TrEMBL record:
It comes from Paenibacillus nasutitermitis. NCBIfam families: ComEC_N-term. This is Metallo-beta-lactamase domain-containing protein. It is a multi-pass membrane protein. Residues 527-563 are annotated as: Disordered. GO terms for cellular component: plasma membrane. The chain crosses the membrane at residues 6-38, 50-70, 269-289, 301-317, 347-364, 370-387, 399-422, 434-454, 461-485, 497-516, 578-596.
Length: 908
């Protein structure tokens, strides 16, 4: 510790900030006491001085206090108003209501115009709240959304600048919170940016913008925005249209125009860090700048000073994300130390950068980019050298093995956080990074940068270089497309607990230390043992200033008297390396295998009614790990001719933004049965994203086709992937595994060749209806069945009797057979068609007599769902009502003993 005081001081600061964010005061005190005890032991072992131990403890306390202070003052100055909701259902609860305001303040961020929406961050100074007298004096950030009414409004909004003074009339809304277990919490995300409210305004008539203070910080930053946008426009000319979004992200950190599908492919291969402007970009920038300054015959001292001055401008130009801020600070500190001829190793620079950023804003610690940037950089500094010793040491192919070491260490260090946040790993990621990172870094990026700079002097030459970069891009895109398309190498791992992440990094640190110690064994030490010496030739420890970077807190290995000389025998010594490496591999592999299937020994089954807004999506997990997904939600959009300009570049799509991340977080590696109850968009639109990201083994649908873009695209995707499709046939049942059965309701077709597939515009009355039985607990799921289909199902069910037929075998080991449906009370019923008045008749409710009724419905939907009369009928039937708009996701857990437990994401 004494040789690296700044590193340990920064580490304790990080621990203190994390403890302040995640622990109560009692837990914080306990953690502080534990750290004090650990530091005391280090002092007794003479690994740390009393002064350093006290400084580290003070760092922990100071960081904790800073985070607690930041949280205490991160509050809103606007009133929080509540209203009673769903009182008619008997399950009323208080919800925070929106209200009208007129605010005045300064535009702080660049204005983003996307389709019919303009968005920016505003610092509000005064606010007139509806129902209040005098305006409130505030100093608060708002995220402003302005809905544009006409296409010409886009140009007006794009002309607004940072630093401008704005007066806006609109409605104040709370950001959406997580409504599914493990879902993205937008409210908490914005809270980390000290934003508590969304201000929604309609039309330019609600906004008045005027020039602000000329020399304010936002006004000065607006000039950076203008320059950045001008460079973006140059790139629109220099590169093909399909590549401009990628090149803007690569060179300038502008990811707004990046193709979402292309980003998905890069993400699957773990290549998104290429698009995160970071240390590599700073290094290339400084290399090019240094070369130009050498041509001008500038002295070393002046050149270093000029580069230090240029770095902040480059950081601002590329968007000032945490990764580039970290790299910029490290580069500035390193250059300054080099100018003073006191350059230390990278760990000191990294520690100083972390300290400066967290002291400036403790919320940086919660940023995923911050975490990955610092951890991977630290891993490269500490881990490459020990790992490199495992590879051939000759001069031949030295550069190749150096690249292998860097790539492997970077992948290993990022693995735990990648699993925790992104839940997927591709076995070809290592190969993709090894091939593409150098190619893009040393060919594409320099070509793009040179083309951009040269365009100001020689447009024709810039176009030529841009064409060369475009060819290189097509090569890299082809490799990405080919590798990401190999789905057999793509694995989904559910979000593990934080303790798993901590264990993995601890195990990596121990493994690294062992590798380092073994690598430090030297022949002189061994030869001295043969002559009776038990000490290294040089004795003692190396001076701190000469020590190379090594795992923190662990001494350098010295061969001692108890170690057998391999030249004189000692068979345990010969066996030790193999045994040791096997233990190290097991310490890392076993937790990964557990994370892949953490519930391998659980026999509970789950039925989850997911909150996907005004739509349906139900996830069923059987006791033996089979996954059944029924519908995938999706918004119904209506566009008039001439309104194409309203389309967003990256519109919200429930499958890609909500459903796929949820399934991945829960470790759904395969969907054994995908059910499309019918082909309306609010039930199937999200399924295309599911099929693109998660393998689907088989599909069940209502046996019809609908002339809609969503239906045609989905059925086409299923055909392209060769997914077997089965048409619903009333009376059939499927035994999924022990204790799990699906019984199909509805019309009996008996035409298993599926020769006739009719077109059907009105789909609701032809929904796939089923009863799912899990450990003898029953769930009635009927899609959007209307009253006519309900009556038909009741008539067929009541008169079905005992039907016997030959079994049908699917391609698995599961049987499909004709069986009768028992007439008995249902434990859980999904209310058809979101509680529409056209369904859930009194006869239907009387026949099934559900204990619990679940309504999947969107908040404040324009259809008026659920209907009041339907709610009254369900209440009269004695069913307990759960609603996704009020309760969020509703999850039922069924134990092997048939016990049924329910929990929901929102509400009491």
């Amino acid at each position: 510790m004494n040789s690296r005081p700044l590193v340990y001081f920064a580490l304790c600061w990080v621990l203190g900030s994390a403890a302040g964010a995640g622990l109560l005061l009692s837990g914080l005190m306990l953690a502080g006491a534990g750290l004090a005890a650990l530091l005391y032991v280090q002092v007794l072992r003479r690994k740390s001085s009393w002064l350093l131990a006290a400084a580290c403890l003070a760092a922990f306390a100071g960081a904790s206090a800073e985070r607690l202070w930041a949280d205490k003052h991160n509050v809103t100055g606007f009133p929080v108003r509540t209203e009673q909701t769903a009182a008619d259902s008997g399950s009323g609860s208080d919800s925070i209501s929106a209200y009208k305001v007129e605010v005045a303040g300064t535009i702080l961020s660049a204005v983003e115009v996307d389709g019919d929406r303009a968005q920016f961050i505003m610092n509000v100074k005064t606010a007139a709240v509806a129902g209040e007298g005098a305006p409130r004096q505030l100093d608060e950030l708002l995220l402003v959304h302005i809905k544009l009414a006409q296409q010409k409004d886009q140009a007006v909004a794009a002309g607004w600048k940072r630093g401008s003074y704005a007066v806006i009339s609109g409605e104040l809304n709370l950001p959406a919170e997580a409504t599914n277990f493990g879902g993205f919490d937008y409210r908490n995300y914005l809270l980390g940016q000290r934003i508590h409210w969304l201000l929604k305004a309609s039309g330019l008539s609600s906004v008045v913008v005027s020039p602000g203070a000329r020399f304010s910080k936002p006004s000065l930053l607006s000039h950076i925005d203008d320059f950045r946008n001008s460079l973006g426009r140059r790139m629109d000319v220099l590169f093909p249209a399909e590549q401009t979004g990628y090149m803007k992200g690569l060179i300038l950190g502008m990811r707004e125009d990046l193709d979402p599908e292309q980003f998905r492919q890069f993400s699957q291969l773990g290549l998104t860090h290429i698009l995160a402007v970071s240390g590599l970009h700073v290094a290339v920038f400084l290399y090019v700048l240094g070369g130009l300054l050498k041509l001008l015959r500038m002295t070393r001292e002046r050149m270093l000073l000029f580069m230090i001055t240029a770095i902040p401008f480059y950081v601002l130009l590329t968007g000032a994300a945490p990764s580039i801020v970290r790299a910029g600070i490290m580069a500035m500190l390193g250059l300054f130390a080099a100018r003073l001829n006191k350059l230390k190793d990278g760990l000191h620079l990294l520690a100083a950068a972390a300290l400066l950023m967290l002291i400036w804003d403790p919320y940086f610690l919660m940023d995923v980019g911050f975490q990955l940037s610092f951890l991977v950089t630290a891993g490269l500094i500490v881990g490459v050298q020990p790992f490199r010793r495992l590879l051939p040491q000759g001069k031949k192919l030295k550069g190749l093995f150096d690249m292998i070491a860097v790539t492997v260490v970077a992948q290993a260090v990022s693995f735990p956080l990648t699993i925790y946040y992104f839940n997927q790993i591709h076995l070809l990621s290592l190969l993709a990074n090894f091939i593409l990172v150098p190619f893009i870094s040393f060919i594409v990026m320099p070509l793009g940068g040179v083309a951009l700079v040269l365009d100001a002097l020689w447009h024709g030459g810039a176009l030529g270089i841009g064409s060369a970069a475009a060819v290189a891009n097509r090569l890299s895109f082809g490799v990405v497309l080919k590798l990401s398309g190999m789905r057999q190498f793509h694995f989904i791992i559910g979000t593990p607990p934080l303790m798993w992440v901590a264990y993995m990094y601890t195990a990596m640190g121990v493994s690294l230390s062992v590798l380092y110690r073994r690598g430090k064994r030297t022949l002189p030490d061994i030869s001295l043992q043969q002559h009776g010496s038990n000490r290294p030739l040089h004795g003692g420890e190396e001076p701190a200033g000469e020590a190379e970077t090594q795992p923190l807190g662990l001494p350098e290995y010295r061969t001692g008297a108890n170690n057998k000389d391999p030249a004189t025998g000692g068979s345990w010594y010969k066996r030790m390396p193999a045994l040791l490496y096997m233990m190290l591999i097991a310490s890392l592999a076993v937790p990964v295998l557990w994370a892949y299937d953490p519930e391998w020994n659980s026999r509970d089954a789950y039925v989850s009614f997911l909150d996907v807004g005004q739509g349906d999506s139900i996830l069923i997990r059987t006791a033996h790990g089979k996954n059944i997904l029924i519908d995938g939600g999706g918004a119904v959009t209506f566009r008039k001719k001439g309104d194409e300009w309203k389309e967003r570049g990256d519109p919200f799509e429930v499958g890609r933004k909500v459903l796929v991340p949820l399934l991945q977080k829960r470790g759904v590696q395969q969907i054994d049965l995908l059910v499309m109850t019918h082909l309306d968009s609010d039930h199937i639109k999200g399924l295309r994203a599911v099929m693109a990201n998660i393998p689907v083994k088989r599909m069940l649908w209502n046996g019809t086709v609908k002339q809609s873009e969503d239906a045609v695209n989905l059925l086409g995707s299923a055909a392209e992937q060769g997914i077997p499709m089965y048409r619903s046939d009333g009376g059939l049942s499927w035994k999924i595994d022990e204790g799990a059965v699906i019984r199909l309701l509805g019309e009996q077709r008996n035409d298993y060749d599926h020769s006739s597939v009719p077109y059907l515009k009105e789909q609701n009355g032809h929904s796939v209806a089923m009863i799912v039985e899990l450990y003898n607990r029953s769930f009635l799921l009927t899609g959007d069945a209307d009253s006519a289909e309900e009556r038909a199902i009741l008539a067929r069910t009541a008169s079905s009797g005992s039907l016997a037929a030959a079994e049908l075998q699917d391609e698995g080991n599961h049987s499909i057979a004709q069986q009768s449906v028992p007439s008995s009370a249902i434990d859980v019923m999904k209310v058809s068609h979101h509680g529409s008045k056209t369904s859930s008749t009194a006869e239907w409710l009387s026949y099934w007599h559900p204990s619990t009724a679940v309504i999947s419905v969107g908040r404040n939907n324009s259809y008026g769902h659920p209907n009041n009369e339907v709610m009254e009928r369900i209440t009269a039937a004695g069913a307990d009502i759960k609603r996704t708009d009020l309760d969020g996701e509703v999850e039922f857990r069924i134990t092997a003993r048939g016990e049924l437990f329910v929990r929901h994401m929102l509400g009491p």
